[in-house]
Amino acid sequence: MMGIGGSGSSNDTDDGDDDDEGIPPEQTTIGDQSVDEGSSDDNSSGAGAAGEAAGAAVGGGGAASGGGGAAVGGAAATGGGAAGGGSSSGETKDPEETEEEEKESGGDETNESEPPEDTEPEAEHEPPEPEQPERSEEGDQQDVDEEEEEDDDQEPQEAELVIYTDAWDATGWGIEPVLKKLEQDFGLSFDLSYKLFTPRELDSNDWGSSRYDMPYTQVVELPDDTKLSTSALHVAQELDQDIFRDYLRRLRIAALVEGRNIEDRDLLIELAGDVGFDTDEFDENWYGDIDDIGEFETMPIIQATVGDHEISWSGHLEYGHVYSVLLDNDVLPVGGSSTLNQLVGEYGPVTTTEIEGITGDDREQIEAEVEGRQDVVRVEYGDAGFWDQT
């Protein structure tokens, strides 16, 4: 006879009837199932109960019929278990073994049907940091020494800028705002000085410069050479280095702004008196005639020295270029800002262009501020105006 959910031969069933003695096997119900599994268990339990009832009814009529009823009930029960478990076997098992297997199966299914417990995900553990090797006191001291050496290597440097020029150097006159701004910005870390170029012949084609905003007049006729003005500048340099710079500036204003021919000894001595030299002493120390004439070169020649480094160039000078060169060689801008009165006192007579180049202020603003001062006066040279102290 075929049970529900399984298959088997009639001989296997008859052999089982002799051993069952009319007692139906016990049924185990798995209670903790999901909705689908619970419905399957209910069907299996109902089939088993129907089998038992049929066996009991037949058993009341006779022993043989009772055995058959019991077999039917057992088969039904077995079929119900097979349907609930999802599998069946053709062999008839001992009831105790069946019970144990169902208990084990029930335990497994119970675990599968139970929802997983909510567990917090394990925190990700960062890999431990590698242990730093212990440093000895000697190692620490070595690091300190190396840092001090690096600091020594980066100590601020001082720069020296030498301008080789003369009174007729139009480009040298044009770059004066740049030189003054470098002096103001770099302060004590920047030293500017002038050295005289060899007397030279003047070339009218290359002499003038229109690249600058400094006051300038077109000279109608240039002298043949610069012998006398160079001699006068040598005298000034030997007598007083500080007044020498003022004298060089006064000669340039006379030649390049007023349009005067400064290759005249009497005029050169007169102009020396304008900046503070004793004219008699200046005349007595006249340098003498200079016979050597240098070849025409692009003026000025600029020599920059920073430590052991020497950098040379000639002609046009841009503030940004020089600034970068100095910074690259560890020359720091340690200068401070100066008031308008200080600038006039240090550089006067000074042009509005030069003040503008130093401070970056607007020309109209500068002129309005200067004109309102009682300690600053406007002076005229040629067609150009300068500012000087009263």
Task: Describe the fold and architecture.
The protein is α+β, with helices and mostly antiparallel strands. The protein has three domains: 10-110, no CATH class; 159-336, Glutaredoxin (3-Layer(aba) Sandwich); 337-390. 50% of the residues lie in helices and 10% in strands. It contains 16 helices and six strands. Strands 2-1-3-4 form a four-stranded mixed β-sheet. The longest helix is centred in the first third of the chain and has 25 residues, at 35-59. It is globular, with a radius of gyration of 58 Å.
- The gross shape turns out to be globular
Radius of gyration: 58 Å
Residues in β-strands, percent: 5-15%
Count every helix, treating DSSP H or I runs of 4 or more residues as helices. 16
What CATH calls the topology of the largest domain is Glutaredoxin
In CATH, what is the class of the largest domain?
Answer: Alpha Beta
Q: Could you name the ranges where pLDDT drops below 50 across 5 or more consecutive residues?
A: 1-93, 103-113
Q: Give the number of domains.
A: 3
N/C terminus separation: 139 Å
In terms of topology, how is this protein built?
Blueprint: H1 10-20, H2 35-59, H3 63-85, H4 95-113, H5 137-153, E1 159-165, H6 170-174, H7 176-186, E2 190-196, H8 204-207, H9 227-239, H10 241-257, H11 265-274, H12 279-284, E3 301-306, E4 309-314, H13 319-328, H14 340-347, H15 352-359, H16 363-371, E5 376-381, E6 384-389
Parallel strand pairs: 1-2
Antiparallel strand pairs: 1-3, 3-4, 5-6
Helix pairs in contact: 1-3, 2-3, 7-15, 9-10, 9-11
